[in-house]
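Section 5: illustrative case.
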């Protein structure tokens, strides 16, 4: 008589970075936890709760002998207060997709990334979602050692003293060295120092968001 393989369950929290269809209605769900990025198999079923990109969830992992990918079980959404605010959810999901692409192929991560998403998700409750995501992004650049706060042009390597432009990854440049939007030097210097967008107008924040949207 064959014995059934018993699953081993473990309880975790995480943010959903990606959802991909697999075998008709089944899904492969990518989840960022404090220490790992997991790809888990979720069976389709009428009793399953709905899940969406960017959700923070409590969940269980079922590991089964002879099965290469673990199963996603017992999902509980830790609801965001702005789930019905289309604009905030749209910006949040766009940022989540950028994080997913940035971390693709990575399995183990520092808790910084989970804590960053948690901090941004709470900040969006109270402020402009683009501002919250951009401020978080600059913190990410600083953490990864990619924030060029010395403000030297990455093209000609000369110091920038007035005509500042920013390109992808917020790389600084002279406006005559690249074709990009001009920013106020003092405002960007302050922004890179404080990681806050307090002194920038919404129109300037929109331009920074366009640059961020090109990729992390």
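Designed sequence:
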């Amino acid at each position: 008589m064959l014995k059934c393989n018993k699953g081993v369950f473990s309880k975790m929290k995480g943010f959903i970075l990606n959802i991909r269809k697999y075998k008709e209605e089944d899904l492969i769900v990518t989840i960022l936890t404090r220490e790992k990025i997991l790809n888990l198999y979720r069976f389709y079923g009428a009793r399953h709760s709905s899940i969406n990109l960017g959700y923070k969830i409590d969940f269980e992992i079922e590991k089964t002998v002879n099965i290469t990918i673990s199963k996603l079980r017992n999902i509980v959404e830790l609801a965001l207060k702005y789930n019905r605010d289309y604009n905030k959810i749209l910006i949040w999901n766009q940022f989540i997709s950028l994080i997913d692409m940035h971390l693709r192929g990575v399995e183990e991560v520092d808790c910084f990334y989970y804590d960053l998403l948690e901090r941004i998700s709470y900040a969006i409750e109270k402020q402009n979602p683009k501002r919250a995501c951009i401020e978080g992004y600059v913190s990410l650049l600083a953490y990864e050692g990619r924030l060029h706060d010395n403000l030297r042009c990455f093209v000609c390597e000369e110091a920038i003293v007035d005509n500042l432009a920013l390109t992808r990854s917020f790389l600084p440049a002279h406006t005559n060295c690249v074709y990009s939007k001009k920013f106020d030097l003092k405002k960007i210097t302050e922004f890179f120092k404080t990681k806050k967008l307090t002194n920038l107008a919404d129109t300037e924040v929109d331009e920074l968001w366009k640059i961020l949207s090109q990729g992390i």
